[in-house]
Write a structure and sequence with these properties.
By secondary structure, this protein is mainly alpha-helical. It contains seven helices and two strands. The longest helix is centred in the middle third of the chain and has 39 residues.
């Protein structure tokens, strides 16, 4: 019989987010659906048709990404030139809003599969780009409001250091105030 204090078996672990829980399942279901659709098309036509579909998606996706990248670079160059000359306009922003979604659509076209090709083609349509852009902006703003005014600032205040022996050392980031005297550099931490 042993006497002494018993240690808890597992410390309280934070709950996993829904995204981290269901993302692997969603990716696996997507892969199975893509493979099933490709085999269905191959059975209805031939393997050559499936190969040509995949090749067309790869070529079209690379053309779309290249075009969107050039357009984004051109808009960036124009904005930098306008900034250097001191003239700023909002016209550049409205023309370059869909570049990220166009690149995402091109990437989805390049990924082998029919579902990803369909989603990629949808993302190339300007009305769909506007809807997705507005929805993403609203979601982002809502998440910022939920985090609160100090939510993001507090996220960067805590730090963890993982030591080689597996121990986690929690700490806090201390920022120097502008009026403080400069301190001597500290020696590096050693084990």
């Amino acid at each position: 019989m042993t006497t002494g204090a018993q240690t808890p078996l597992s410390p309280a672990r934070p709950k996993r987010s829904r995204l981290r829980t269901f993302l692997p399942l969603g990716v696996a279901a997507w892969l199975v659906l893509e493979i099933w659709l490709l085999t269905l098309v191959a059975g209805a036509t031939s393997g050559l048709v499936v190969f040509l579909l995949l090749l067309a998606g790869l070529v079209l996706g690379s053309v779309v990404i290249k075009r969107a990248g050039r357009r984004a670079f051109r808009k960036l160059s124009e904005a930098l030139q306008q900034q250097q000359s001191g003239v700023m306009s909002e016209a550049g922003r409205s023309n370059s809003e869909g570049n990220g979604l166009m690149m995402l659509g091109g990437l989805l076209l390049m990924i082998p599969g029919l579902v990803s090709d369909a989603v990629g083609l949808l993302l190339l349509l300007p009305p769909v780009q506007k809807i997705v852009s507005r929805s993403a902006e609203r979601t982002f703003e809502r998440k910022l409001r939920e985090a609160g005014a100090g939510g993001l600032g507090g996220a960067f205040q805590q730090a963890r250091m993982h030591r080689p022996d597996g121990k986690v050392v929690q700490g806090e980031v201390v920022r120097d105030e502008p009026g403080d005297a400069p301190q001597q550099p500290r020696p590096p931490l050693t084990h």
